[in-house]
Specification:
The protein is of the alpha/beta class. It contains six helices and 17 strands.
């Protein structure tokens, strides 16, 4: 279930992860992949529930719609600093995702803000210099006033403000630290310990 994508394939850089690229698929009979003599055996693709850790190459810039949707056992994702485009529902049903390794320094511009925007659960981010940050879960709800066709989006918990601590795509430690007094009234003690 561990996969590390190269930077290039046949001399061409891998710059995007396509729509539903790692979403679950049906097993492919081995007989269609190579001659083995085992006609009833199946080859398990490294996607969906079979994917546990994934490292993307440094040239990857875009994560398209639902790229990791249904990867229920994906626990760790490693990214380079070039990621700048993150489509909708990229991490839908990634209920085990607990860590993002950012191969960059915290003072470098990255696409981390966009990546975090697609992850609503508790998540730890580790930078290449060893810095680790914890982002608590964010709860979103939509209130609808049906007769007027008005919708209101609400965020609960401190997860959303923590995910906004960026300036020009560079992580801002001062803003992150300023959230702590507010988090003390809303987050459980284990989350506060991880933030501290």
């Amino acid at each position: 279930g561990a996969l590390s994508l190269p930077d290039t394939v046949d001399g061409r850089p891998i710059t995007a992860i396509g729509e539903k690229c790692f979403a679950p698929v049906q097993p492919v009979p081995l007989s269609r992949c190579r001659r083995t003599g085992e006609e009833d055996a199946s080859l398990l693709p490294v996607c969906g529930e079979n994917l546990s850790t994934l490292s993307l190459g440094d040239a990857v810039r875009d994560l398209h719609y639902a790229a990791f949707s249904g990867c229920r056992h994906l626990t760790r994702l490693s990214l380079g600093p070039a990621v700048s485009g993150v489509g909708s529902q990229v991490f839908t049903q990634c209920s085990s995702l607990e860590r993002v390794d950012m191969r960059a320094l915290p003072q470098q511009p990255t696409g981390l803000r966009r990546v975090l925007g697609g992850i609503s659960s508790d998540i730890t981010v580790a930078f290449s210099d060893g810095t680790r940050l914890f982002f608590p879960e964010v709860f979103e709800s939509i209130d609808e006033n049906a007769p007027a066709h008005l919708f209101s989006l609400h965020f609960e918990g401190r997860g959303y403000p923590y995910r906004q601590c960026f300036r020009q795509e560079v992580f801002n430690f001062s803003e992150y630290d300023a959230q702590f007094p507010l988090a003390c009234g809303e987050e459980p003690v284990p989350a506060l310990v991880r933030i501290a």
